[in-house]
Amino acid sequence: MKTPLVITLLLLLAAVPVVAAAATTVEEQTLDIRTREIAKTLRCTVCQSESVFESQAPLAQQMRQVIRERVAQGQSDDEIRAYFLSRYGDYILMEPRKNGLTWLLWAGPFLLLLIGGGVLYRTLMHWVAQTAATPQKEIPPLDDLSRQRIEQELHSPQK
Q: Which stretches of 89-143 are DSSP H helices?
């Protein structure tokens, strides 16, 4: 009777490291996912057109390590971004913040498109109004000579 109990206890003791390793793996995956998502929103200052996540520059690797350390410390995504903003300014963000003059940058193309569409509409309406306002000259009827020439052209073989 004691043998099954001892075997069960030994199996449970053997399973503890496996469960601990699985928990550590899940925690590492969570750290990696958060690090990746934050790194995608920050610009590599060396490559300039790539995010910290995509860049292979040594500085980007160091920045990813800093992000990972701060995630492990329990800092929020906004706190980590604020840290990089304090060091590098707004340039570090892949997508600039929408405040102040940056609203003009975000809305400018749409405003220009709207204004251009309005100007095009007004111009077309002006042209249509001018065309409708001018009286059409009546085309005189064809004389017999012109009519015969057209008939010949229509019935002649194509070259």
A: 102-133
pTM of the model: 0.52
Percent of the chain with pLDDT over 90: 21
Whether 111 and 81 share a structural domain: no
Q: Which residues form the domain of 102?
A: 98-136
Nearest alpha-carbon partner for 85 in 143, 42, 144, 24: 42
In a shared domain, residues 28 and 68: yes
Distance (Å, whole) CA 55 – CA 36: 12
DSSP string spanning 29-85? HHHHHHHHHHHHTBB-TTTSSSBTTT--SHHHHHHHHHHHHHHHTT--HHHHHHHHH
Residues 42-81 pLDDT 10s: 988 888 788 888 888 888 889 999 999 999 898 888 899 9
Cα–Cα distance, 16 to 13 (Å, whole number) = 5
Percent of the chain exceeding pLDDT 70 equals 81
Residues 79 and 21 in one domain: yes
- Do residues 84 and 106 share a domain? no
The tokens of 68 are what?
């990972």
| Residues in a beta bridge with 93 | 42
Statement to judge: residues 53 and 22 lie in one domain: yes
Kindly report, residue by residue over 95-115, the tens digit of the pLDDT: 877 777 777 777 889 999 999
